[in-house]
């Protein structure tokens, strides 16, 4: 069975400082892992995905995530937060089929 | 990635009525899915919309409450039947093409049931 735990329900950062969103997963197989972002009153947008290639994955808008099998983690980072990064972020795991398991989400607020 | 649209984008409905949500994709896709996002919650898969056959429902969701159609490879509908205030949610469709291993989501339909 697959599951995802997002360790922070809310993260607040100052504009221009680094962002770290933590995600741990549980999977019986070699999983695919994703980060999606949902801006207020918008749908979900794919930030990046890991599918057993390079363990450091670069996504859109300066985000990247590192797959660490030994720690069963897939944390999302960005070196410098922008006001437009304020949104809800979901870590998602998928095993061998199409079924996605979503984390509870992390709300990011960015202070000017 | 595919361009996905949903209609309506939002609606306010009275309890006991039904609402049909449409999902349109600009290219043929293998898989289409329907999700529910209750207020302040994460996403839960309702069902997989199968082209030409009955949808496959997840535990806790039944066809009588959430009938789904998928007449072709670019279009699907989800009906929320006999609505109650507990059905107030965002309903999202997603699509995946064979070999992509990635789901792309529509903008969602925001439903409020009074």
Provide key terms for this protein.
heterodimer; A: 112 residues; mainly beta; 6-stranded mixed sheet; B: 114 residues; 4-stranded antiparallel sheet; 11 strands; 50% strand
Please outline what is shown here.
Chain A has 112 residues and is mainly beta. Chain A is 0% helix and 54% strand. In chain A, the strands form three sheets. In chain A, strands 2, 5, 6, 10, 11 and 12 form a six-stranded mixed β-sheet that branches. In chain A, strands 3-9-8-7 form a four-stranded antiparallel β-sheet, with no helix packed on it.
Describe this structure in words.
Chain A is built from no helices and 12 strands. Chain A is an all-beta fold. In chain A, the strands form 3 sheets. In chain A, strands 2, 5, 6, 10, 11 and 12 form a 6-stranded mixed β-sheet that branches. Chain A has a 4-stranded antiparallel β-sheet with strand order 3-9-8-7, with no helix packed on it. In chain A, a hairpin with a 5-residue loop joins strand 5 and strand 6. The radius of gyration of chain A is 13 Å and the shape is globular. The N and C termini of chain A lie far apart (41 Å). With 114 residues, chain B is mainly β. Chain B contains no helices and 11 strands. In chain B, strands 2, 4, 5, 6, 9, 10 and 11 form a 7-stranded mixed β-sheet that branches. A 4-stranded antiparallel β-sheet of chain B has the order 1-3-8-7, with no helix packed on it. Chain B starts with a strand and ends with a strand.
């Amino acid at each position: 069975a697959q599951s995802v735990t997002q360790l922070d329900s809310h993260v607040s950062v100052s504009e221009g400082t680094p962002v770290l969103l933590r995600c741990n997963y549980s999977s019986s197989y070699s999983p695919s892992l994703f980060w999606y972002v949902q801006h207020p009153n918008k749908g979900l947008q794919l930030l990046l995905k890991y599918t057993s290639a390079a363990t450091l994955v670069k996504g859109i808008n300066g985000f990247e995530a590192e797959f660490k099998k030994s720690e069963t983690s897939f944390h999302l980072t960005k070196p410098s937060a922008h006001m437009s990064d304020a949104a809800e972020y979901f870590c998602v795991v998928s095993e061998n089929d199409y079924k996605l398991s979503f984390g509870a989400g992390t709300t990011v607020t960015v202070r000017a | 990635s595919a361009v996905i649209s949903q209609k309506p984008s939002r609606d306010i409905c009275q309890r006991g009525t039904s609402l049909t949500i449409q999902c349109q994709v600009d290219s043929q896709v293998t898989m289409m899915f329907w999700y529910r996002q209750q207020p302040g919650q994460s996403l839960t898969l309702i069902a997989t919309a199968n082209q030409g056959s009955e949808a496959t429902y997840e535990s806790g969701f039944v066809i009588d409450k959430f009938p789904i159609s998928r007449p072709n490879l670019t279009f699907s509908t989800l009906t929320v039947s006999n609505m109650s205030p507990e059905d107030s949610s965002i309903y999202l469709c997603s699509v995946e093409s064979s070999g992509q291993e990635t789901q792309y989501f529509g903008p969602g339909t925001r439903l409020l049931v009074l």
